[in-house]
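In this supplementary section we document a worked example of the pipeline. Step one takes a protein sequence of length 275 as its only input; no multiple sequence alignment statistics are reported here. Step two produces a three-dimensional model, which step three serialises into structure tokens for compact storage. The input and output of this example are shown verbatim.
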Amino acid sequence: MSEKLNIEDFKEENEVIEIKPIEVHNECIVDVDVELEHPPIAISIGFKYNYDVPLVTYGNFCCVVGASKSMKSFFKSALIACYIGGQSQNFFSQIKGHNTKGKYIIDIDTEQGKFHVQRVARRVIQMIGSNYEGYKCFALRPKTPKERVKFIEWLLTESQYAGKIGVMSIDGVADLIENVNDLESSNEITQKLMSWSSDYNIGIITVLHRNFGTDKPTGHLGSAVLKKAESVVFVSKEDSIVKVEAKHTRNIPFDNFSFTVDENGIPHEIEDLNF
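The serialised model returned by step three reads:
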């Protein structure tokens, strides 16, 4: 049995929220006469209308949705590898990272043990073409949902990576709560995704399962994430072909595309005439 982290409860009893309304007013008011810059892009897919097409910007989060064994984690690996760069664009020419210099990439897996998570991490390194010092991967399967949340908050606030993280991937965001159909905890963890990305100016990639027979992510959590995510990407597998679709986005949608996985377990984009 794994050693328990020394952490506090995820939700404090009788928690009292105090605000200073004038500070909230000054921070949150939107002036229509002020020209605001577009949030800086963390990861883009493609180029349209003279702009890179954002998948996720710094200060926001996106979600990859798919059925079990639909190659969601392979696509997540492609996003991470292409954010880092190296030789990864030989596999996915349209995906690229922005403003990546000096930033760590945190890759969290909540579902698999260390052996399989290591294989995922090695896939990223193989796509890049060399070991990348800033890529850190964690297997949190043995931990409880509360421990996972507290560990993520430690990474963001107190670890040696704090303040220098560019992108964080959470493969298995549903495992940050006990029950994806609990409305309160689903809303709380979605709020944390919004706060983590905004407060620490990072791009977060989340991965969620899709309900069988529907296009909806699982449970109340899926509904909450779908509403709040900057982009929601659906992946579906037919035989050896994986289709990637931009279902929902607040930005220009990228063009749908397909990929397959070669004999070495490496995903790469292909031309799919039947898309």
